[in-house]
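Cont'd.
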Amino acid sequence: MTIFEKSVKGRKGYSLPKEELHSEASFSGIPGHLLRKDPPELPECSEVDVVRHYTELSRKNYSVDNGFYPLGSCTMKYNPRLNEEIASLEGFSYLHPYQPVETIQGVLEVMYDLQNMLAEITGMDAFTLQPAAGAHGELTGMLIVKKYFELRGETQRKKVIVPDSAHGTNPASATMAGFEVVEIASNESGLVDLDNLRAALDDTIAAIMLTNPNTLGLFEKDILEISEMAHKNGTLLYYDGANLNAIMGHVRPGDMGFDIIHLNLHKTFSTPHGMGGPGSGPVGVKKHLEGLLPVPVVRLNNDGYYLDYDLPNTIGKVRSFYGNFRVILKAYAYIKMLGKDGLKLASEMAVLNANYLRVKLSKLIPPSYPGTCKHEFVLDGSKLLKEYGIKTLDLAKRLLDYGLHPPTVYFPLIVHEALMIEPTETESKDNLDKFAETIEKIVEEARKDPEILKNAPYTTPVRRLDETTASRKPILRWRREK
Amino acid sequence: MTIFEKSVKGRKGYSLPKEELHSEASFSGIPGHLLRKDPPELPECSEVDVVRHYTELSRKNYSVDNGFYPLGSCTMKYNPRLNEEIASLEGFSYLHPYQPVETIQGVLEVMYDLQNMLAEITGMDAFTLQPAAGAHGELTGMLIVKKYFELRGETQRKKVIVPDSAHGTNPASATMAGFEVVEIASNESGLVDLDNLRAALDDTIAAIMLTNPNTLGLFEKDILEISEMAHKNGTLLYYDGANLNAIMGHVRPGDMGFDIIHLNLHKTFSTPHGMGGPGSGPVGVKKHLEGLLPVPVVRLNNDGYYLDYDLPNTIGKVRSFYGNFRVILKAYAYIKMLGKDGLKLASEMAVLNANYLRVKLSKLIPPSYPGTCKHEFVLDGSKLLKEYGIKTLDLAKRLLDYGLHPPTVYFPLIVHEALMIEPTETESKDNLDKFAETIEKIVEEARKDPEILKNAPYTTPVRRLDETTASRKPILRWRREK
Amino acid sequence: MSRFPYIPHTESEINKMLEFIGVKNIGELFNDVPHVFDFELKLPDSTDEFSVMRELKTLAHENLNLNEVAVFRGAGIYYHYIPSVINALASRGEFLTAYTPYQPEVSQGTLQALFEFQTMISELTGLEVANSSMYDGATAVAEAALMAVRVNGRNKILIARSLHPEYRVVTKTYCHSQNIIVEEIEYSKDKGQVEPEHLKNRLDDDVSAVIIGYPNYFGIVEDLQKIKALLDEKTLLVVVANPIALSIFEAPGILGADIVVGEGQPLGNHPSLGGPGLGFFATREKYVRKMPGRIIGEAKDVDGKTGYVMVLQTREQHIRRKKATSNICSNHAHNAVIAAIYMSLMGKEGLKEVALRSYDKAHYLFSQLSNMEGVKPLFSGPFFHEFVVSVEGLTVGELNNELLKHKILGPMELEKDFPELGNSALFCTTEAVRNEDIEFLLGRLEEII
Amino acid sequence: MSRFPYIPHTESEINKMLEFIGVKNIGELFNDVPHVFDFELKLPDSTDEFSVMRELKTLAHENLNLNEVAVFRGAGIYYHYIPSVINALASRGEFLTAYTPYQPEVSQGTLQALFEFQTMISELTGLEVANSSMYDGATAVAEAALMAVRVNGRNKILIARSLHPEYRVVTKTYCHSQNIIVEEIEYSKDKGQVEPEHLKNRLDDDVSAVIIGYPNYFGIVEDLQKIKALLDEKTLLVVVANPIALSIFEAPGILGADIVVGEGQPLGNHPSLGGPGLGFFATREKYVRKMPGRIIGEAKDVDGKTGYVMVLQTREQHIRRKKATSNICSNHAHNAVIAAIYMSLMGKEGLKEVALRSYDKAHYLFSQLSNMEGVKPLFSGPFFHEFVVSVEGLTVGELNNELLKHKILGPMELEKDFPELGNSALFCTTEAVRNEDIEFLLGRLEEII
């Protein structure tokens, strides 16, 4: 039941100061047609109604706080409550973006330090914290690429190369920045095909977007060669940081030759996903691109921290103000907690967990590519489809009945019936074992009685929903029944 | 699964400052037999394990935040989140009881004001906020009674009269204070039987403990006569404030002639019950008993607020420090929010809700006493037992399947198969209607197929538990299986 | 023994796992990473929760927070009262730590809350459909411009100069790369609104959309009806609204808006230095397939039970890739749920009362300032809860420095963004500014100016 | 329209309900209340959430909170670090707003958490059974005295004078009414412990129990084994323990304690001006039916599934009424759950580390103070994280006033409660006192004394 159906005319869940009004609703200066006739039909509820409604809704969600959440490329690690408490301090949450900088020195110190810490972790030279999410960071990066070539007068560079295994946001962001996307096929090992790449590289190519390790969880070991090819061609190399959790303290995108990088603070740096956001997608660049960053950049001089708007070659702004500050703050606290030893260990344990689970599950469902993975790996469910008529989707839905969240399914697109699994380092061996046992149980069910899977789930708040009809005849808002 | 079974040796969910120790665990001064040999077997979990475990446990609870909770005499009203936010302010939560009074003036102001506000609401002259709960308040009150007669040299007053409809804590508290309890039977209207009372009153009676409205939800309309009889006999009149929610702003126990009162801030004043506590049970007295209150009392002089220990006739202390301060704070905020108009309306709507539901349900299950009730009422389930073999307990368990919390059952003891219902004012008409409809549905089930009820509940995290065996062969702690 | 509260592995488990995988040590798992990349992170060592909390509290105290001052500054981020219920509910782990609802069966909480949010935005804006959030007001405007171009294939955006300066900059940044022309429309120097006559002259067949604030950056309510009347049937009217104002002022959808976007921060979200905010986005039903962002729809499950799912995903980047309506992936779902809870609690009457009180205080302050020596109202257009005055005798910056000494966060200084307005200031009041704060401000202004 | 966010009734609903009941107005529902009682409440009118929050914040700021100072005061309430997880979990509505678990089927969260708490207390104390909480340390001691009398029918309680003064007062208050004699046992003036020889002389056939602190109020670890050896087989040894200390010091149950009680506040509960605290209570299995308070036990449901229920309720007031083991009804369940979460998070190693760090700092401070002019350790007995020194040259009160100026909450002044100790002070350190705080304190002491 929606909150609208719980509404009763005249009921009240709020209280406001009872100060007398200076002029009882005088709208004398306002043209009549600009005054609202029918007020917005918002619900009218008492406070306890609202508490019960959203408490109940929350209980219909699965979350990291409920259990294992091995969505590939999503890095669903534990989100420390310390960071939430910090972000709720009034000295951070009740700040106006246009306060004088003298009154927000604590904030600017956090931002300045985080810019530097991220630069150190990634091997880049300068960072902006402005982008609101990973894809927003990609867009920012692509705008920097665009501006870079504008300034160089190389306006013929209208294309961006993206491997076919890339996250969907990569081509979308490149397109949004006005580039044409050239997709190149991966080789049989799931890596960038150097021949394909070489063939595609010409003077129209502005950038190559890569993630390393890639979405298959495989490290692009030829990265130095790729980087050399790109730079020799005058092409910039862009790093999608969604998979950074695999390599912290082991290898830095900057050292691999990347010119631009975005990070997802809500993945690697543990700020919560919040049902899909807010995230934060800082962008780092090498020295030669620093002047193109969006304004303002946080800097320090003798008077303290300040907001520097004086970047003549800036791409401008990609959003209002300075970024998702309270998200940034959580990432800052996370890095402080883990430190250099913890960050490195986090990556190591993420990779250990992924490989442990990969080996465990490989006996049940073959991996799409052999060998050691990094933080995630991809299984090929097509055998299940062939043998039992079971789609990856069915297996995913059946996992819900066992109280577990399924992996990412049907991505990356280059694997048929893909199951993309990223356990993260915050899961214990017990949890991985339990997940593997459950998969084994489900595969056994598939063998014995595939109908069980095809009709799953059974125990969830709702069962399988008709998404096709929902998109064909969309009902996008509640309306009172006539 | 318990948290102990989720423990893994060597796992860690905490972090402590890494300062070097001054003397690496030197216990040179400690006799060996006083050093612990086998450390306590506490669980070893990561932070996410702990978060998931207790999140999961919380989800196995029904609470006011989940729905209607009509437990009679428990006043399960909505607990405002504002009060929780206030109580979590560091300026209240991080205070040491032995800080200098100059550094806790804000706290003392709250306590002083609350003492006065409670005195105004109840018509008493002075309050202590020290008792930790209702029963603790009762004990405090009875200790005051005891001391009062000691001071007067009337040591023959060794008895306390308690009606048979009283809360179990009344006789227990009187006994605990060293009194002998005389139980008197109620009359056929459910009220104090004046003849019985008169017969019992002699010079051995120290006090009469009453609640008004009583546990049947009936107002003791002869209260002035009772009070006169008591006082003429030299007996003190004690008011159990558990049912104060019925009468705020309408009638004051002090005006009825009561000498001592306790309140349950966790009932009438909406501080949450917290699964059974902490509560707070302030005790109010008339002028002639003020000097007997436990120490310290909060007072105000020209230098500010202070803690007054100088009460030569004090009963002493009933607990450490000054009371459940953070609970007290929530009640303070609640009274501030509602004000005199809101408190009165709260009682009115509590009584309205009770009568509305009483009339609705009376058609299904007869009330144990006829006529208007106050904040609660009692139904007599013995008809259901006779006709369908259905016990009140069965009906209660079946309610759980419908996602509702049952009323208090089998209390008060003077009603067979009692169902004691207190809706409170924070429930809306819709919620009362829905509850009544559900009861109707269940009574219909009882008629058609009583087995449904006898085996209920079906949909809860566990089903009916074997409480008898659990008490006969108690297992009171977890132990690793051998 | 494990060393970190967030990393559960014990030595013994690590060894068992390595053995199971068949490698000798962790290093072997990184064998595919060339050793040329070896390096040592230069960061401080790990520390503990206690010390981090202590350090961050110190940094928090170095900032002046809005609860410590009387706030007369708005300019896009507003100081409203946030009832305690909001964070108590929104911080529940099941909301906070869930991912995008890719598995609807176990995400009904997220999906229904966002569906309710969409409904509320639809009600506020007077448009049929809304998405489930954008990053902020600025990006919502920018995406609206891109959407307009997708809808009608035209290539020029007219954006009111009276719109928030940052929104204009961001829109230009977004449009620039797609070679979409962005031109500004001047405001009337006396009314502070877009002048219909002026706009009329700028309209031609290339104009894809006209973007207007409602109220605009100066707090003034633009006459959408008059503006709409000037547009040909292809040109879209994009309105950038303050959601609080929409309980008092006519719904833009009713007045002809085709797209309504804005910053939803005032709906229960903390100021947070401006981030995270909440972009909202609504449009007409016929354009829904051109709309960016995630959209939630009602659906039935196999048993006929009502539930909610993400719909029209073929517009989105994870399906459509380079042909997506937008690259947006993570959005601001949590902020949208906060807004939904806020609107549920305040309700129809409460939101209106917030608007009314904000309006009333601003108009009182305006009338008092109008009579004050050295202060002059700049515009005559009708306004909501912000207005512009020019100040004589000292700069607005100097004035604000003085006010800050009295714990007043004074008006927004306009000269940098609007040099044509000279030494002027944008005042704002909300229901969270007390009458006594206004009188205190007036007293200080009398002294200072 | 309803007027209060907590009261949902609209005028129209009120009318419908009155009509349904068959009365004309609300007044009729109060007809049974004699009009002689009519009166007008003299309280301020209702106000709003914003104003209440503002007022209470102001009051909160009028207090000096422990996070603003270096804390060297313990004396029963201790300043330990409380990880953020604790309140995030404990404040979940399902914990906060549930009642006593009278319906176990929908209270398994409460019941299991308390069962786990009981297990942890049993582990800490080394006794077989624990209840699910008492109000605080003081009432737990008092109830232990009453229980001892119930167990052995004797009528005299010997209580160590080295026990917390407030615990002694409360125990006397409780015992007084039941005509139970309470006598104090002196402590040795050099060791600060109960002197076995002295105790021996006081023991006779009337002594129901001997109550001893562990550590005692002076921080000193009493030798329970020696004390136990003196008692006849009927006399109960009641030990009042600091739960944090029990990771380092031998479990009282092992050393012969029959009842172990104490204040559980240090286990993750805020200092809160001393309330709400958390009384814990453990005893030997054979006495379980004499134990006061609620007890949770394991049970099986009709399907054989494991669950938890309240057990042995026939001891309790709601069943047994005047013959109950105690009148306790509401207890401190929420504080017990907080303690359970804290102990789960800190675990075996963490709790020990807290104890160790507290111990280490105290011993360092003790050794430094021992060498300081004008300061003299009073006792030679082994101590945990508190110790007593006497001070020359100025009163402890004066000293503390000076320290407070440097943001130090100095030691507890003992003279009022222990005049025999003269101008002496009880210092305390916990893991939340930083080494630099100690050095800072030492520097100030050098200056002041």
